[in-house]
Amino acid sequence: xxxxxxxxxxxxxxxxxxxxxxxxxxxxxxxxxxxxxxxxxxxxxxxxxxxxxxxxxxxxxxxxxxxxxxxxxxxxxxxxxxxxxxxxxxxxxxxxxxxxxxxxxxxxxxxxxxxxxxxxxxxxxxxxxxxxxxxxxxxxxxxxxxxxxxxxxxxxxxxxxxxxxxxxxxxxxxxxxxxxxxxxxxxxxxxxxxxxxxxxxxxxxxxxxxxxxxxxxxxxxxxxxxxxxxxxxxxxxxxxxxxxxxxxxxxxxxxxxxxxxxxxxxxxxxxxxxxxxxxxxxxxxxxxxxxxxxxxxxxxxxxxxxxx
Amino acid sequence: xxxxxxxxxxxxxxxxxxxxxxxxxxxxxxxxxxxxxxxxxxxxxxxxxxxxxxxxxxxxxxxxxxxxxxxxxxxxxxxxxxxxxxxxxxxxxxxxxxxxxxxxxxxxxxxxxxxxxx
Lengths: 308, 118
Description:
With 308 residues, chain A is α+β, with helices and mostly antiparallel strands. Chain A is 24% helix and 35% strand. Chain B has 118 residues and is mainly alpha-helical. Chain B has one domain: Orthogonal Bundle (Arc Repressor Mutant, subunit A). Chain B has helices spanning 6-28, 36-45, 55-64, 88-112; strands spanning 34-35, 68-73, 81-86. In chain B, a hairpin with a 7-residue loop joins β2 and β3 (81-86). The radius of gyration of chain B is 17 Å and the shape is globular. The two termini of chain B are 26 Å apart.
């Protein structure tokens, strides 16, 4: 048997699997790859006890494991069950198409998706990857220690007279670290719900006289970020709002800015982001505002591209 | 009238599997911890998952939902393994499903038997 032949078969399989899992958030993708690697390692260890490993026996292990595309379909379809603020809205749908030329494009809506956002592509559940604990309106604005005890500060600054600091979850990096970490604003912890599958996500915090918006743009590199006071359920941009401060941190963009009026005065915002890797529109509707909390997101729709 | 198309039947099986598969995993964990390879082979052998690999997204979801938890065990033979075990929440979910499943099964059985039972 050829040792290198066996290794090539296994590495080809995992390369294909990695590609098929690309639409998943990194933490999930890495977890699945780790689980499946363990499966193959154990299965191969079992083989080598019985007889010498051959290309044929390794192929058999991979055949039993199944086509990477099927595993990816299961991961995308079954994802996630945990209630998130969007799931709480009831049925949420997203459609994503993998176009020729390696551009990933998607369109997603929740709440009551207008007809314009529906497509004939396969519908998969709209998913948020792991949200830090404080993203929903009910529990956001808790003590900073709930966040800082398990994260590392990666940036800080001042906004509307309040000190803010951005935290990345320990053991994670990139957008995932920020999304599983969060923001400390005026001593309170606020989450950062990731926009998966939309790379651009925004939170609106009610902290008094002026609302504060912040979010992560999951494209690599610095993104251009525009905010609009808009109308939920449309992609009409509406009125351009003051540009937020955008910075590159953990390899992706974080933005934070002050709105001219109170958070209660913005029933809808649109976030437009553009980076080398792609561009994204995210139209959000907001519910009741409560001082010291994030404003609940009651509607969400987006369209985006990812050039790979 | 009886005009069920074969594709419809296959789809029905897929839907029934999808609806019950996570409880099958919980049931396998009721008495003992198991590692992924063991779980996926058992379910694939019973035809409850289409391939062993599709089991892992499901395990990830159960873990995310807090129904199972995992720990690494060293093994005297071979590499370390990640073991899955039921949480209290997982056990409660399994118990609730067991009750519902039995009453569902009995109701269908009754109908299929022409309502003779009772």
